[in-house]
Amino acid sequence: MPKKYDISGWATKNNILCADGRRIGKDAFKDQDGAIVPVVWNHNHDSIDEVLGHALLENREEGVYAYVSFNDTPNGQTAKSCCNHGDVTAFSICANKLKHDSNRVVRHGIIRELSLVLAGANPEATIDTLEITHDEEALETALIFNGTTDELELNTIVHSDDEPEEEPTPEPDEGSSEQPSEGIEHSDEDKEAKDMADENKSVGEVFDQAMEKLDEDEQTAVYAVIGAVAEGDDNDDSEGGSEMKHNVFESRVQTEDVLEHSDEVAIIEAAKECGSWKKAFNEFLDDNELAHDAIAGGFAQPASGQTGDVTYLFPEYKDVHPGAPELITNDQGWITTILNAVKKSPISRVRTRQVDIRGLEQLRAKGYKKGHEKTLAGNFRLAQRTTDPQTVYVKNALHRDDIIDITDFDYVQYLYNIDRMMLNEELATAIVFGDGREDGDEYKIAEDKIRPIYTDDDLYTIHRTLDLTAAKANLQGSDTAKHFSDNYVYAEAMVEAVLYARETYKGSGSPVALMHPHTLNVMLLARDFNGRRIYGTVSELAAALNVSRIETVEQMATKTRTATVNGTEKTYRPLAIIMNFNDYQLGATKGGEIHHFTQFDIDFNQEKSLIETRVSGANTRLYSAIAIEEEVTNANG
């Protein structure tokens, strides 16, 4: 038993069910037999004023017994008076580095502080001895680190031998901790600290002098130690379990790489022996498997799968564009142009009939010669075809939970807009190029239902192959590399192909040109002998091609068609499609136009959406479209 204490009692009892469901095993804290820990009120660590005194721990068969000495401070003496009066009768411990067995029995841990509480989590952690008079010359030394080097202080608290036994709240005497610093007395335990400074110097001043003798790396190590200790007070790690406070259980984010006050003292002692802060600090890190990055300043990053790194201090992310996420789409301008321009018909089953009477000698009018019989004109050719409708749809489903949980934009409308966009793009692609699926694909939009302009019969679409070799020869003769650039040759070849095809073009009105963005750029970059661009704007190029405007279609890059020429199958890629799209008819009977249907599925808690249309599509005029293309048979193998 110690010679001095104010109260004593059981800090914790073994094999008693605590309020948090744990039991303390025998000798769980045996390593702290004789250890001194702070005493605070109700586990409050917010201020040094909350420290009421200290407790000497004694490991016994039944548990851990504590002998408490209160400080000569107003709070300390108030706590002493409350205990003497019987107002406070319970202890509670704060421990960490806990190791449990499978039955939640604590087998090892470290008690960090002892608290006075109104009711303990361990029902037998109580105060059983009060009002013990201090013997004279009783000393306690406390080394306090607060995270900044200029406020590092060493304080020695001396309890007076004049303290009356019957007085619950004695006045502090000349040796109390409330006296000025120059009156502080140092105990034998402070001998090493006293070697660093005389009675007229604080440890902060001694520390500054010592820091001047260290190199930059060693100074960095010292600052990292002090900063880590200050942060470690609130983030102690428990190796085998969570931090335990018997009575008050707080949820804390804890990290593994934390330096504690006891660790700091060990580093200081090692530094005195080896003469180097840096060496002592690194040896401590190696022994305890902590991250060396801590000496670089800032926050040491946690191990994988753990929390608590510096990113938790960053502000929350903010949306650049609040609301619904922005969509990344293919070119949509040409799709609107096509769907607005095609002729809409209330008839979905359509038939087109044309008679080609061009160049038929037998149809020519004849001159009459008296006495001869008048002959009949010859036969003419009739071209006709029929087109039936097909249903095209987009189906989707939304979980009602998602609809409710997504609150920063209208999720239902957002998905509908996407579905409608996909339907429009599929219709426009099928009209111009075909949907690209194989013939046996169950989802293919049949090319005899919505007839593609690019792959249509030569009677409807005029196909012209771009011949760059012939264009070079025509423009430059044999000295091709000396005069015109490749862009110029390409541009002139395109213009020539389009204008020559216009000679047989029979479409109505003024056509529109669709082309890939790269094709357009090559033509715009064409230069003459002096380096000046031939076509300064897109409008100038459109005028040269004799079209009303040019629309870019990036989807064109992946489209091809096959054709048999002189018994050989060849593959072509489109460079430009030219047509007045009003000559193309899109037919749908009543009810076949685009409709949106919704239905709630009770079984799967889903809001289902269907957008569909039943249409037919076909070019209704002969020779009303022009397709400029290049052969890619060899490129495709």
Describe this structure in words.
The protein has helices at 74-85, 191-196, 203-212, 216-232, 261-274, 277-288, 333-341, 400-405, 411-432, 468-476, 480-483, 486-501, 517-524, 538-545; strands spanning 7-13, 23-24, 36-41, 51-59, 63-70, 90-100, 105-117, 127-129, 139-144, 153-158, 244-245, 343-345, 350-356, 381-387, 390-399, 461-465, 512-515, 550-552, 561-565, 568-579, 584-587, 595-601, 606-619, 625-631. With 637 residues, the protein is of the alpha+beta class. It has four domains: 7-144 and 153-188, Serine Protease, Human Cytomegalovirus Protease, Chain A (Alpha-Beta Barrel); 207-313, no CATH class; 333-357 and 382-447 and 593-616, Major capsid protein gp5 fold (2-Layer Sandwich), CATH 3.30.2400; 461-584 and 622-631, hypothetical protein PF0899 domain (hypothetical protein PF0899 fold, 2-Layer Sandwich), CATH 3.30.2320. A hairpin with an 8-residue loop joins strand 9 and strand 10. Helix 4 crosses helix 6. The protein starts with 6 loop residues before the first strand and ends in a 6-residue tail after the last strand. 28% of the residues are buried. The model is unreliable at 131-194, 196-200, 229-242, 245-258 and 290-297 (pLDDT under 50).
